[in-house]
Amino acid sequence: MNPQHCLFVCTTCGSKWQDGQRVGTSAGEQLLEQLEALHQDWDLAAEFPIQAVGCMSACNRSCAISFAAAGKHTYLFGDITSEDPNIELGNILECAEKYYQHPTGVLPWAERPAPLKQGILAKIPPLIPTPTHAAV
Questions:
Q1: Structure pTM?
Q2: How many CA atoms lie within 13 A of 9 on its CB side?
Q3: How far, in Å, CA of 12 to CA of 73, rounded?
Q4: pLDDT by residue for the chain (136 residues), tens digit each?
Q5: Phi/psi class of residue 57: alpha, beta or left (left: φ > 0; alpha: ψ in -120 to 50)?
Q6: 126 CB contacts (<8 Å, ≥6 apart)?
């Protein structure tokens, strides 16, 4: 059984600001909406939910998404926008499926779609459980 997986999508990415207030719909919110529409018909929808995140601190590389699961590497990708004709949003779910299937979540560069090759911001190793010490 695979651990719970999650596709995080930054909803602050690509926001327009006026007088310190966010105005309109951000590019991240648009990306989230489009991914959610694709996600509904995805075979792994129940095992790999999408979660909106207020900010992923990748502002200069928006829009940002992340794949995460307990015991697996976490990947952070930027420069994901549905307005780029080179990005097929379905590729994100295809890559997420490869992540889901790999026991440690490793996504070899050659196996990722182009936007997720060029847009990689971080590959964070999984936490290693701290061994417990038996009481003496």
A1: 0.86
A2: 26
A3: 24
A4: 445 899 999 999 888 888 888 888 889 999 999 999 999 999 999 999 999 999 999 988 889 999 999 999 999 999 987 666 556 788 899 999 999 999 999 999 998 987 788 889 999 999 876 666 555 5
A5: left
A6: 70, 71, 72, 73, 74, 104, 105
